[in-house]
Amino acid sequence: MLKRNLAIGMAIVLSAGSLFGCGSSESNGGNTSAADTPAVTENAADASGDMVLRFSWWGNQVRNEKTDKVLKMYSEDNPGISFQEEINEFSSYWDRLAAQSAGNDLPDIIQMDYRYIDQYVSNGLLLDLTPYVENGLLDLSNLADSTVDSGKIGGKLYGICNGLNAPMMIYNKTITDNAGIEIGDEITLDHYIEYSKLIYEKTGTPTNIAYGAGTKYLQYYMRDRGEKLYNNQGGLGGQESTFADFFRLYENAIKEGWHTDPAAFVEISTTSIEEDAIHSGKSWSTIVWSNQYAAAMNSKPEEYEYAVCTWPANNIKQADYTKPSQFFSVSSNSKNPEEAVKVINYLTNSKECNDVLLGERGVPASSVIAEAITPKLGQDEQLVIEFVTKVSENCSALDPADPVGSGEITNLIDSLTEEVCYGSKTADEAAAEFYEKGNAILLKGYSGQ
Description:
By secondary structure, the protein is an alpha+beta fold. The protein has two domains: 176 residues, Periplasmic binding protein-like II (D-Maltodextrin-Binding Protein, domain 2); 205 residues, D-Maltodextrin-Binding Protein, domain 2, CATH 3.40.190. Helix content is 43%, strand content 11%. It is built from 18 helices and twelve strands. A five-stranded mixed beta sheet has the order 2-1-3-12-6. The chain has a three-stranded antiparallel beta sheet with strand order 9-8-10. The protein has a two-stranded antiparallel sheet with strand order 4-5. Helix 1 packs parallel to helix 3 and helix 10 packs across helix 18. The protein is globular and about 65 Å long. This is Carbohydrate ABC transporter substrate-binding protein. It comes from Enterocloster bolteae (strain ATCC BAA-613 / DSM 15670 / CCUG 46953 / JCM 12243 / WAL 16351). Keywords: Signal.
């Protein structure tokens, strides 16, 4: 992650490189890597004269197929416009963007995350979209002010929310039924631990407490206790004892036998919903985002029934929140910013487009689109809208965007959690190291070193 942050910083001092695009029509819409992508002209046109827009996103097979289809629809409606798709899993996505940033070679349209948008803006890598709203090219009239504001930094608009999201725990109802356990719409942390022990005792199925998910559950855990992971003075929020208690969740679960063996994650990706441990029975639950539900159901074995509830917290209202699932942003080095903005407007406001997407990235930010697609949604998508609506009625404000250095914090949490689970560090030792190293990482980013 240090390499990632350094690469982002390098992007503002390195000279501009040429954009990359598709060398032939066969590669348009393909999943390409930076290493094998041929250069295109300064006008970002391919040999046929088409304008080629590079579009990057992270996702799963469901998202990839739906996005590919709507981009082809856009090309059919707008002759002379084609796309180069650059797709990665979440973890590798940011390493690739960092490398592209260092070479001044970011894609035209970037799927951006709330955690990282501030860092990209501070390095001058994203385009202010305010002028395109003012001239009518980008229509945000059907988005709530709070939704629009979530993409603003310093009063300027750098990201367009492409879906509303909420923390969601998917659990294997077949297993909980076999254990004689009923779970409602919410689950407390105390009950989660109690049920995990009981399920393991009765069925032999362990639990994965967001292993390898970085700060995702830690931030929720701290909100539950009335704390924030980051303060506004360039350091960690909370107390060292809070982090010790968090690591102790894993320490106790491993010692008592009810946590998934960390060795299982050598062969199972912790960032791919299709490979999640819940599908193979290596965990009775998984801590994910609501917009991952459809992909999870797509990978569900036929013999299992899944259900959903909140993430575990003893004070649900204080811990829970809704957030932009992702933003769409335009890179500041795009040669065709107006066309990139038109594509974002299409994804945001086109009913035909959203008849295909059907809220896969989250509940549509446009109220008109959300209302239009609801009758067309399947059972899984309807469940997500109902779930996010319930969360929005019983939650607290979203924490500010993560500061510079948060990527390294994520890696540090994963590394220390792994050491605790393998028994090479105690919870107290991990907390002390996290508090010391975490504050040093954030201070470096806060001071601009």
